[in-house]
Amino acid sequence: MALEIVLPFKIEHPQYLLAAIPLIILAIYLLKRKAAKFRSKLDEIQFEKQSRSLRRFLILSRTLLIILLLIALSSPFSTKERTITGDYSLTILSEESTSMQLFEEGLAEQVRGRVINSIPAKIEQIAYGNDSSIAEGLLNHMQGDDNIFLVTDGNTNGEKSLDDIILLAKSLNSTISLLEMSPIKDDTSLRLEGEPEILFGTDYTYYIDVQQVGSPRPYTVELYVDGELIYQTSGLGPASFEHTPQKLLLDGFHQIEARLVIQNDYFRENNQFFKVVRVYPKPDVLLVTLNEDSKYERLLQNIYTLAIRKSIPADLSQFGAIILDDIPGALLSPDIDKLSSYVSDGNGLLVSGGPNSYDRGGYKDSLLETLLPVVVGVAGKEESEQDINVVLVIDISGSSTFSFAGDKGSSKISIQKAQALDILGQLGDDVRVGAVAFDSNGYYLTTSLLPKFEQQGLNDSIVNIKADPKAGTVIYEGLDKADLLLREAKGSKNIILISDGIVSRGVSQSTLTKVISLANRGVRIYPVGIGEDTDVEFMKRLAYDGKGVFFQPKETQKLALLFKKDDSSQELAGNELLVLNSNDFITQNLELQGTISGFNQVAPKPTGRPLVITNRIYPVVTTWRFGLGRVVSIATSPDIWAGSLLSKKNSELLTRSLNWAIGDPSRVKEFDVKTTDTYINKGTDIVVISENPVSKEGMTFAKVGSKAYRARFVPKTAGFQDFFGGKAAVNYPEEYYAIGLNPKLPTLASITGGKTFTLANSSQLIDFVKETSKRRKTDFTYFRWPFIVASLIIFLIEILVRRIHENANR
Question: Does the predicted TM-score (pTM) go above 0.70?
Fold first, then answer.
């Protein structure tokens, strides 16, 4: 017998009920309105006496009639939730791709053989050869309200994300379970990574990743550049290696090859990896300076082809970037239109401060200021005293219930709550705060924004939140609740998102759309990562689109600086340089040490990205995009105030800033080839910049720009390919890299309520399938017709009464 639970009476469209009030008022007005004309006052009084009771009846009946019709339109309904016994069948999805050769054969058949006498079971094959489109295979076989059992290593290389499909499975009430298995063959794979393009003279680091499954076996890694062995090391088991050679690469395309020397490896294809590194020649840079002994000249002359002028020359076409070194605004004003066009066309501009620039050089309210990512001068008193609003958004999804990496005694949710409390403790008492939590849905921890000292019980609310092991990570829901809290707030609006970001790709587009919408309304997003398995790239994207900064847990003390009101009376030792955003090209892995004795007064524009600040919260390095170009503001002077920036370690900040401003060094070339490394059978685009059309046997080039031609190249063999002098590396199929079990797979399956089973506990699998086949069904019963019938009866009664009244007055 099914278990029935009667849920409360509900209204599907309550907005229709709100229309009752104006409609009733209109009905009363029309009934009271005197449409007839009378010959005398006596006739009017006589008519009023005869029709008074009828009019009262009509007002009452029409009011009731309108109410009944609106209730019918609002669709009242009730629901019944029933727990029913569903289909006991089990769908076994068996991956048949090449990587599964490392495991025992026939595992899917063994699973079916152990359960077939108790529950119906069928085997469907997904993924073949070098195509591990597991997500697509899962999508094709999900029916909803079903049990699926995966026999797979979980390493997918298809176009669809496995995270996406897992979230879809949860919404369809499909339960996905797994077979626990271990490789029975030994294999080791190799991958080589590093920047595909660098400038001449830039240090280059090679990253070598080795994966190994089966029994640990010794191996040797060799690294070759243009056929010459430059590095050799040995290892045992999975490992990562880094190598930064002393020898600098020359200009041009360079063929890099990593080789794995190992005995008795199952797959030989993944023991060799190819990569192309392009080294650009020294870019042409214009340094405009009035200083006869400019520190920029000393620092940059060996890295760039430097042209030094005291004013802006007529022709700027040869330069990849311009440095304005403490130049007064009056000297630049005749050339502002030329500078604006130069940057808008895709070139770089670095504006360095000093006693003759920015607030001291007449930049404020000038055309030059429109090019800069900062406004000149400090914020006014009204702006500096505005409210600061912060909403903490805390992840309580299923992935937060797992152990925090490096601390097996704590779950990630406990770390996230501790992190939230720590951030809250760092905020000033006058900061207006609120908090929400989210998993597959969003939940308010506070119902409004209040100054921190007034949010009584917020700490306890954070401590007491619980995580659901089966819930997904839908960041959109948390941001949406935070948006509602911030909607009416006055002052700066900020969201601190505390999450590992796992499974977020399942709703990534809606989340990113929400973040962009928030940013357009002045709300900044500051994601804080939790755990070594944080989806860092996704969280960085949220920060970038949200005009904020991504922080690792150890960096959250920087948040206190962001949300601190300026207090010029506060005495702090010196002006220590701090990296605010360590995820930018300019500041990544950059550790600054030292202080500056002075700086120009500037404040970042809403779309400017502050990267380096002082401990007194003054921005030093700020960037933004202007048109197609890039602009860097350095609000201090290495010549006078910031000698510490010239040290060997700190000077990289200046060279990286200039490299970022330069962007693509090849954009001024009349002929150029742009390539991307790829894998066998995985297409890549070849782009040729040329004044004339280009052609190559077996490829079709289409014009995609005024001087750009593009063709698709799908390689069939590994090695290096040449395209008009440009090179691209082709590697083994991606199928051979990710070997062994995907460690994320059990976490993803648990989101759907699934479990991991061994062959030995097949009886538990049978019981699990029977239990999870009991599905909760919701039946909807609508009550529109009773109200429609009642309104019809009232209407008929009204007609009858009016007829009787008319006959009585004849």
Answer: no
